[in-house]
Amino acid sequence: MELRHLRYFVAVAQELNFRRAAEVVHIAQPALSQQIKQLEEEMGVTLFTRNHHKVELTAAGRAFYERAQAILQETQRAVADARAVECGEAGRLTLGFVSSAAIHVLPLFLNQLRTELPRAEVELKELAPGEQIDDLYNRKLDLGLFHAKLEDELFETALVAREQLIVALPAENPFAQRDAIDLRELARETVIMPARHATPGYFERARTAYQAVGVIPERIYHTSLLQTGLLLVGAGLGISLLPESFRNIQVRGVVYRPLAHAAPTIDLIAAWRRDNSSRLLEWLAAKIKSYSTSLLCQADARISEKEYAKHHH
Questions:
Q1: All CATH 1.10.10.10 domain ranges in the chain, comma separated
Q2: Pairing between strand 120-126 and 155-170?
């Protein structure tokens, strides 16, 4: 049995007339009659009763008609899905991200994806940068969003956000009353930050902020995710340097303050394998590159405005 047999049968079942059915499927009437006869012989059932006046489905024919229709419809959907994936309109993407990406950048890309390619499926995984890089190597992720400087010819990257670091403090900390924070005054505070990993990233940028003012924190608690560190700050266990977009995350017991001195910036990058042939990833990567320029221009403009205001205060 082949799909053409099902098409022939469904045409006759719908038309209940061999001549009209033959026109629908574009074959000669004798050939159609022969194909239906062969189908009945193969199945061992009678699908139609025929006489000079009319053609009718048998009980077996009615049962087979429902299933045959479903098979043909499912085949059409399978073809449509394959074509959609081939041209990048559908498929599945697995995206890794850090918590700072979920504040602005990730929703921006997902909304664009949902609007323009509603048939695309996305799996989201919140992972530390090192975990994302490992999963990109092992093809468990299609694209990652994280803070790191990734220099590997296997990957293509795009800078999607650049932010200044700010300080998150427990609300009861005496320095929380200040308008701006000098890290030299917080040298004895416990610092909560993600652990260092093989690829330079967030740890190095936070350390640079302390080195710039000649301070070595007395105690450091390491976490996998920035948002976990923020919850520990809310519990009064220490302070944390975070991208300024974290101001949008309200956690009980946490206040945010800018640094009184020149604040280092932290870069958020998107990374994906160059040899990933997904057309859907190709579409998303193009969008990310397009957004990259405008987002960075906006970020640089905000930083310039803050520096101007600081010097002319």
A1: 3-86
A2: unpaired
- As a CATH number, domain 3-86 is 1.10.10.10
In DSSP notation, 168-195 reads EEETTSGGGGSSSB-GGGGTTSEEEEEP
Written as six digits, the tokens of 259 are 């640094």
Rounded Cα–Cα distance for residues 129 and 225 (Å) = 9
Could you give the 3-state DSSP secondary structure of residue 189? Answer: coil
Q: Tell me the pLDDT of the chain averaged across its residues.
A: 87
CATH-assigned architecture of domain 100-313:
3-Layer(aba) Sandwich (3.40)
Structure tokens at 38: 């062969």
Ranking 67-71, 203-207, 263-267, 308-312 by mean pLDDT, the lowest is: 308-312
Mean pLDDT of all residues in 188-196? 87
Q: What pLDDT score does 216 carry?
A: 85
DSSP reduced 3-state for 41? helix
* CATH 3.40.190.290 residue window(s) in the chain: 100-313
The conformational region for residue 26 under phi > 0 = left, psi -120 to 50 = alpha, else beta, is: left
Selected residue with higher pLDDT from 304 and 16: 16
